[in-house]
Design brief:
Blueprint lengths: L13 H9 L7 E2 L2 H6 L12 E4 L3 H14 L3 E4 L14 E4 L7 E4 L4 E4 L5 H9 L3 E2 L12 H6 L13 H4 E7 L5 E3 L5 H8 L1 H15 L2 H10 L12 H4 L3 H9 L8 E8 L1 E2 L3 E9 L2 H6 L1 H6 L4 E5 L1 H8 L17 E9 L2 H16 L13 H21 L5 E8 L5 H15 L5 E5 L4 E8 L4 H20 L18 H5 L1 H14 L54 H16 L3 H17 L6 H5 L6 H12 L2 H12 L1 H17 L2 H16 L28 E4 L3 H4 L12 H13 L3 E2 L11 H6 L2 H18 L7 E3 L2 H8 L7 H7 L4 E3 H9 L9 E6 L3 H6 L2 H11 E5 L13 H4 L1 H18 L3 E4 L2 H11 L3 E3 H9 L4
Parallel strand pairs: 2-4, 3-4, 18-19, 18-20, 20-21, 22-23, 22-24, 24-25
Antiparallel strand pairs: 1-2, 5-6, 6-10, 7-11, 8-9, 8-10, 12-14, 13-14, 13-16, 15-17, 16-17
């Protein structure tokens, strides 16, 4: 996001601003504008607005920023994924982004260990381990968005890892920065000696606390009791019992410290094996009591996972958009269910385990039997039932409320009574829509409720419920936080859970590490009994398409603009912040946010809609940004968009002619002319002339109507606007020419419709928000394709994935009656058609040694990633999709208009591809090929061009 003026929206002095900026090698990574309002939103129900947001790129920068904040008396909060649920990822003062520049990983010992930085998501780390049959131990449900930094800082666990494979148990060593600026590598041979020499007071304090804890029998008993369960409440005091060397104690205290003791810059994990042979089943039992009573027997027979769903959770799942067959027809009364899973290293071991477990399963009073399935599809459906609870409850909550997801743990004998008492609490406090689920094998319960904080009565209700819930859990001998971290939500209750003595130990730990109290004050420890009732998030209604957003951040890892401008979560946050400013009568703040919003949110959005694939409540922020673009168009612009659609053949010819002329002129002249036009107000239509602008392509294929045609070929116009890479190297028609040559070679007849030059998938109009032009193009294109396919009898095949995706969306622009008429039309991408119809009938391809593949956002939406990989494997001995793959953000012309977005989106993938030294590079969409060619300096071509060459008869 662009850097704001020095005093903009910030109360910091100029000296403080200068000190913070001087901490960075690039001052542009410092923002006091709209970014700080967007950063106030994390996945919790708290909202604290920082005065500045800083993106740190090294441990030294973090240390310098902490020193600057200490001198200025400002608090500092470390933020990576922002998926934490307890309020620990936001704060006042300075918010330091430790995700953007912290995504490196190194696999060690053939996957048995991995060194990883805090900004990498768990899913990305596990992708690097997958080829070794290993994974990280912690397995939270947010693994696609939560980062390693947060997983370590919260001591995260999950559905399978229990207490044996959580961060505390599987981290081998840490490299961390103390508030003093000292960098500690606990894995270094001399780490303990270095800590003693560099931080003598801290070292001696840890020795003193070690003796204090070990010499107090009551303290030992409390620690052993609480940490025999999952427990992320307070600091990891078990470190004083588990370790002797102060540096090891300190490293373990860092785990679960939630950014209050230091910055974790790197972690080395011992990984765990992936057990590939799995059987899963849903046991529907008469009550929660019967479900929890069954757990000891299930554990004894080797169940790896046992997830509990109460009656309310089952009802929510049964009423969802995609109810699972396992619940079909079930009349839910007081039922509960256990989702159980068995997993082993081999088929034989699994069979032996299931045989031993069969008598136990058969004895269960399950309403639906105790059958287990090994089918990947059926297993995915059962897990969708469990993981979809969040979606179902959060998506259906009243507008203006927040979804609160809490977790507790109790001793196993108290689990049944705790579940029943929680239901009573929900009824007493009016949380009718609350559901209970969780990791029953660990007696770790999650409960989810919806809550607004607009009125004082709402806050008072929440306070009463929280107090009663605390009484219930602590009365059962449990912990108020099992895996989500203490954060702000339970900080006032740490003393009550641990007692005065151990709370004093925690206070001393904080004082030893962070004597100035710079790091995240109010997180983990807070003496104010009402601290958890401050800074509660208000959620105004802004747009029915996005009001159900819960700020979870799942969208951010897939968003190509997240590192350079804003993410979908931040776009929605800024809309809400503008609404709050308007409601408060603060027009200056609203106008300031609106001004930055235009570029940071609307213009720079690639509108690839990958966000909807990750969003648990199915919000398509890309579609909303396209609608906002449409709202900016005046009558003249709308008419112009419609006119271009109606005369597309001539417009496309004009673009090709313009490109031809431009390439014939001196480059400085063309660049100057383009710049002048942009300055006149056409920056959203005319790109700055790049040195790598392709030459114009050739004309689209002429009409053909062979007897016995199996499909209608819709050659994308993008292939005629831009020539293929390297002018096609023998295939001047690019992907379209390659496709038709392959069809001829495979003996597959395809038709080409009349008037193709004037047709388009509509994506250019849709992306820019020209609704009338999009509708005009849709009407004409669908009418021609209806005729060409004989009323939908033949599939339509397109040679550019984004255009195939665009074709599938044309029906949505039509009135309902017309939509129904054209509903039989079927659209297929050329890569799928090639796998299903061409590849089996082609000669054996001559294989390249290696190939880097770039799937596109559209292949994800179309579900053809596997087909692209299959074609890659057909033409190369090794075909790799980079671990760091993501949308290239070229997005038609976005990469030409806003190249900075594509540069940011492709940086990690480009580095991986270049390091891989591949013989060839391929994708399946011309503009994506342009984007990846620019990013890597390697020629990307359509995979069909490579397949055509690989099967072409040798001369």
């Amino acid at each position: 996001m662009p850097t704001a003026p020095a005093q903009q929206a910030s109360g910091m002095s100029l000296d403080t601003l200068a000190a913070l900026r001087s901490s960075l090698s690039e001052p542009g990574r410092f923002d006091t504008g709209a970014a700080r309002r967007a950063a106030a939103h994390d996945a919790s129900h708290y909202a604290l607005t920082p005065e500045a947001v800083v993106s740190a790129a090294s441990a030294e920068e973090v240390a310098s920023l902490i020193a600057a904040c200490r001198s200025a008396g400002l608090p500092l909060t470390l933020r990576s994924g922002g998926t934490s649920l307890s309020g620990q990822a936001s704060g006042p003062g300075v918010l330091v982004d430790v995700r953007t520049h912290w995504r490196e990983a190194e696999v060690l010992d053939e996957g048995r260990r991995i060194r990883v930085q805090p900004g990498m998501t768990l899913r990305q780390a596990n992708a690097r381990l997958a080829r070794h049959g290993r994974r990280l131990g912690p397995d939270p449900a947010s693994e696609g968005a939560c980062t390693v930094g947060g997983v370590v800082a919260n001591n995260s666990s999950g559905m399978n890892c229990g207490t044996q494979d959580n961060s505390y148990r599987t981290v081998e060593s840490l490299r961390f920065v103390l508030p003093s600026g000292t960098v500690v590598d606990s894995g270094a041979p001399d780490a303990d000696a270095l800590l003693r020499s560099r931080e003598p007071a801290l070292y001696e304090g840890l020795v003193r606390l070690r003796s204090r804890v070990r010499d107090n029998p009551e303290s030992r008993r409390t620690i052993e009791r609480l940490f025999s369960m999952k427990n992320t409440m307070g600091y990891a005091l078990n470190a004083f019992l588990d370790h002797t060397a102060p540096v090891e104690i300190l490293a373990r205290l860092m785990i679960g410290s939630e950014g209050t003791l230091g910055f974790i810059a790197e972690a080395v994990f011992r990984t765990v094996p992936v057990r590939p042979h799995t059987a899963t089943g849903l046991l529907v039992l008469p009550s929660v009591a019967r479900a929890t009573d069954a757990l000891p027997a299930l554990q004894e027979c080797g169940v790896r996972t046992a997830e509990l769903l109460d009656a309310a959770a089952l009802r929510v799942s049964q009423q969802g958009l995609r109810p699972e067959p396992a619940l079909e027809g079930l009349r839910i009364d007081r039922h509960a269910a256990l989702l159980v899973e068995f997993a082993e290293d081999s088929e034989e071991e699994l069979a032996e385990l299931l045989a031993a477990a069969a008598p136990v399963l058969d004895a269960m009073p399950s309403d639906r039997g105790a059958a287990l399935t090994r089918s990947q599809k059926e297993r995915a459906g059962l897990w969708r039932l469990r993981k979809g609870l969040y979606t179902a409850v959060a998506g259906a909550r009243p507008a203006g409320t927040t979804a609160l997801l809490e977790d507790i743990v109790v001793p196993m004998p108290s689990l049944t009574a705790t579940c029943e008492s929680l239901v009573e609490l929900f009824e007493r406090h009016g949380y009718e829509d609350a559901v209970i689920f969780g990791h029953a094998r660990d007696a770790n319960l999650h409960f989810m409720l919806t809550q607004g904080f607009d009125e004082e009565a709402d806050v008072e209700r929440y306070a009463r419920f929280t107090d009663d819930m605390v009484d219930l859990v602590l009365g059962a001998g449990g912990s108020l936080k099992a895996e989500h971290g203490t954060g702000r939500v339970m900080a006032p209750y740490v003393r009550r859970q641990y007692g005065d003595e151990l709370f004093a130990v925690m206070r001393e730990i904080k004082n030893l590490c962070d004597p100035a109290g710079v790091l995240s004050p109010g997180v983990v420890l807070d003496d104010d009994p009402t601290a958890h009732l401050r800074h509660l998030k208000i959620v105004p209604q802004v747009d029915e398409d996005i009001d159900r957003c819960v700020d979870c951040g799942y969208c951010e890892p897939v968003c190509p603009s997240a590192d350079v401008t804003t993410s979908p979560r931040q776009r929605i946050a800024l809309l809400r912040e503008m609404a709050l400013a308007e409601a408060a009568g603060d027009e200056a703040r609203r106008a300031e946010l609106a001004s930055e919003f235009e570029y940071a949110a609307v213009d720079s959005c690639a509108a690839d809609s990958l966000c909807v694939t990750a969003c648990p409540v199915s919000i398509d922020t890309g579609a909303v940004m396209k609608r906002l673009r449409s709202d900016r168009h005046g009558p003249l612009a709308r008419k112009a968009g419609q006119a271009v659609a109606r005369h597309w053949a001539g417009a496309a010819t004009g673009v090709r002619a313009g490109l031809s002329v431009a390439h014939a002129l001196p480059e400085p002249l063309v660049r100057g002319a383009a710049g002048a036009v942009r300055r006149l107000g056409a920056s959203g239509l005319v790109p700055a002339w790049p040195a790598d602008m392709p030459k114009p392509g050739g004309p689209r294929p002429g009409a053909r109507a062979p007897e016995g045609a199996e499909a209608v070929f819709f050659a994308a116009c993008i292939g005629s606007l831009f020539a293929p890479e390297g002018d096609g190297e023998g295939v001047p028609e690019g992907a379209a020419g390659a496709f038709l040559a392959l069809c001829d070679r495979a003996g597959v007849r395809v038709a080409v419709p009349e008037g193709l030059d004037g047709l388009c998938c509509g994506t250019p109009w849709q992306s820019k928000g020209y609704v009338d032009g999009h509708r005009a193009m849709a009407e004409r294109t669908l009418a021609v394709l209806w005729e060409a396919t004989d009323g939908g009898c033949l599939p339509v095949v397109c040679d550019a994935s984004s255009c195939t995706h665009g074709l599938t969306q044309l029906l949505d622009t039509l009135p309902p009656e017309e939509r129904g008429r054209h509903a039989p039309l079927r659209f297929t991408d050329s890569v799928r058609f090639a796998v299903e119809r061409l590849l089996p009938n082609l000669p054996e391809p001559r294989k390249l040694a290696s190939l880097a593949l770039h799937p596109t956002c559209s292949t994800v939406h179309l579900g053809v990633d596997d087909d692209l990989t299959a074609l890659g494997q057909a033409v190369a001995e090794r075909a790799d999709v980079p671990d760091s793959w993501g949308c290239c953000a070229f997005a038609g012309d976005r990469g030409l208009l806003h190249p900075e977005v594509t540069a940011s989106a492709t940086a990690a993938q480009a580095a991986e591809v270049v390091a891989g030294e591949y013989e060839a590079h391929a994708s399946c969409n011309r503009t994506c090929e342009m984007g990846m060619t620019r990013a890597t300096g390697r020629p990307y071509r359509h995979v069909l061009e490579l397949l055509e060459e690989a099967t072409r008869p040798e001369m």
